[in-house]
Design a protein that fits this description.
Structural class of chain B: mainly alpha
Number of strands of chain B: 0
Helix content of chain A: 40-55%
Shape of chain B: globular
Number of helices of chain B: 20
Oligomer: heterodimer
Shape of chain A: elongated
Structural class of chain A: alpha/beta
Helix content of chain B: over 70%
Number of helices of chain A: 4
Largest sheet of chain A: 5 strands, mixed
Strand content of chain B: under 5%
Strand order of the largest sheet of chain A: 2-1-3-5-4
């Protein structure tokens, strides 16, 4: 193979990559991807209330726990983010009979309804749509 | 003490793995980079071993690791003289282009890290979640509780979480720590590829190889994602580089050790270790060489086996599969066709790969396949071939699993693919 052509091809490939990186990170993404808020601040108060052990987890949105369920949905993301923030507390999804139950709802107005449906009584609110409860 | 353990064990492993002295600055730099990567990996693996064995990992673990490294270094300090290596110098413009590409990749890493302060989805769902459990839980076994949703993937090996958890314990919990660990592995990935090629074919080809990594558009994104794909790519690249250049069984054992750390990094690491071993056997028919490589793999493989048997809940791919779904998926021709189509489309996926992967595919199709097959090329071919049935038979929706995993598999394999391709380019364009 002609060394000059190979060199030119590699430089072109590298240039295309550099331009693509610059475009994505400094033109496209700043316009269409908002800066994500860190996960922890929303759950700080909750973490102080439930520092260890196991807890049930209920929500107004479903969480993907079986094959074929939406693993990227908001309900799944909320569960996983709560789990991330609360570690080492193990969150058992849909367990409303645990001694401590975390209620995390996307629509804060739904919190009383979710607690009522799951026969839970409120122990403490830990932010909008976020509460610690126990079985009635 | 941790820094000493990493440095001494890395130095000891490299001393044991290279029977000859380093004959050049590039060779010394390559060995230093390998020592750092293996040192970090061994430090994390020892942490896991200590936790699983004793339930707690105190300073005794670092002391033992440092002592083992020192013992290796002393035992293998006498080396044979270095051999001459070819060294084609690089022009100044190429150094500048490489420096520019590193600066752009670093800037993209910073930008993405600031935009996604907790890393990519899998970072907080799996890797940093596990690190938090390990750092915070009174009983480390809690990190693998089957009571969590399967998406936390409690069965994944934990080299990266082990490193991050130990850094949390040493410096306190901060989002900067997983980002810094990710940056170290990203830098190691570029350095391993560039130096591995430079030590064999000179700085010119080393810089081109480095460019093929730094200018892959998804590379800085994956580094900033704080997931295990880039660390796995580092261990695979080290194993690949050593396997491709090994002049002794000690180097093969060191390659195996790196592959074993890859096994402890991510489940795919086991596939890559098997493919490297199979390719070595296939292409060389040298049982002793294969035994040396397998001996090196053993520590990582045993650690993984211990974890899988003692702690890990079932993998979701296995847990959701039945004989019926396997048979149904295997016979579903539409599924195989969909997989082929998605793979072809991914090759020309400019957003993530620019033109690199398409160029590599063309180069393989029209040039490399007419050459004598190499061990490394064969291993990568086997790995790619193995992914076809894995994708087709797994129980999840094919488009979802492919969309969420194809790029990460590419990033795991890409540095090794660059290492496999560089010799063909260097040899066929050699200036006489």
């Amino acid at each position: 193979m002609n060394p000059r052509r190979v060199t030119a091809a590699l430089v072109l490939l590298a240039a295309a990559g550099i331009l693509r990186i610059l475009f994505v990170h400094f033109v496209s993404e700043p316009r269409r991807e908002p800066v994500r808020a860190p996960i922890d601040p929303r759950y700080e108060a909750l973490r102080r209330l439930v520092p260890s052990g196991e807890a049930g987890y209920v929500s107004d949105l479903p969480v993907a726990v079986h094959l074929g369920e939406d693993a990227a949905g908001l309900g799944t993301r909320m569960y996983l983010q709560t789990q991330f923030a609360l570690a080492p507390v193990v969150l058992r999804y849909d367990d409303a009979r645990a001694n401590v139950v975390i209620a995390n709802v996307a629509n804060p107005a739904m919190l009383p309804e979710v607690l009522r449906q799951r026969s839970l009584s409120l122990l403490a609110e830990a932010g909008p749509g976020l509460a610690v409860a126990r079985p009635r | 003490m941790s820094v000493l353990a990493i440095a001494l064990f890395g130095a000891g492993a490299v001393a044991a793995g290279f029977p000859r002295s380093a004959g050049s600055g590039v060779e010394r730099a390559f060995r230093a980079v390998v020592a750092l990567a293996l040192g970090i990996g061994a430090w994390s693996a020892a942490y896991a071993g200590w936790l699983m064995g004793a339930g707690i990992a105190g300073p005794g673990k670092d002391l033992a690791l440092a002592a083992a490294g020192a013992a290796l270094w002393i035992a293998f300090r006498r080396r044979q003289p270095a051999t001459e290596s070819q060294a084609e110098a690089a022009p100044r413009w190429l150094w500048l282009l490489f420096a520019l590409s590193c600066a752009v990749a670093a800037a993209a890493f910073v930008e993405h890290t600031l935009r996604f302060p907790d890393g990519g989805w899998d970072a907080w769902m799996i890797w940093n979640l596990r690190a938090r459990f390990l750092a915070r839980a009174a009983d480390f076994r809690t990190a693998f509780s089957p009571d969590m949703a399967f998406l936390a993937h409690q069965d994944y090996p934990w080299l990266l979480p082990g490193a991050v958890a130990q850094a949390f314990a040493a410096f306190g919990e901060s989002r900067a720590i997983p980002a810094l660990v990710a940056a170290i592995f990203g830098a190691l990935g570029v350095a391993v590829v560039a130096l591995a090629v430079a030590r064999k074919f000179g700085a010119r080809w080393g810089l081109f190889a480095g460019l093929a990594v730094t200018t892959l558009p998804c590379f800085p994104v994956f580094v900033s994602n704080q997931q295990s794909d880039v660390p796995l790519s580092v261990y695979l690249a080290i194993a690949a580089a050593l396997l491709a250049s090994a002049g002794s069984r000690r180097e093969l054992a060191l390659a195996g050790f790196a592959a074993g750390l890859g096994m402890w990094t991510k489940n795919e690491g086991s596939l890559y270790a098997i493919c490297l071993l199979a390719a070595l056997l296939w292409r060389t028919r040298d049982l002793r060489a294969a035994a040396a490589f397998a001996g090196g793999v053993l520590p990582g493989a045993l650690l993984l086996l211990w974890f899988k048997l003692a702690l890990a809940p079932p993998n979701d791919l296995a847990a959701f599969s039945t004989a019926g779904t396997l048979l149904h998926n295997a016979l579903d021709l539409r599924r195989w066709g969909e997989l082929a189509l998605m793979t072809l489309r991914r090759i020309v996926y400019f957003q993530d790969f620019a033109l690199w992967v398409a160029a590599e595919a063309l180069f393989l199709a029209f040039f490399v396949r007419r050459q004598q097959p190499s061990v490394l090329g064969t291993a990568l071919f086997l790995a790619c071939a193995a992914f076809a049935p894995i994708y087709a038979l797994q129980p999840h929706r094919l488009d979802w699993i492919f969309r969420t995993s194809a790029d990460r598999i590419l990033i795991q394999l890409w540095p090794a693919a660059v290492l496999a391709t560089a010799p063909f380019l260097a040899r066929t364009t050699a200036r006489t």
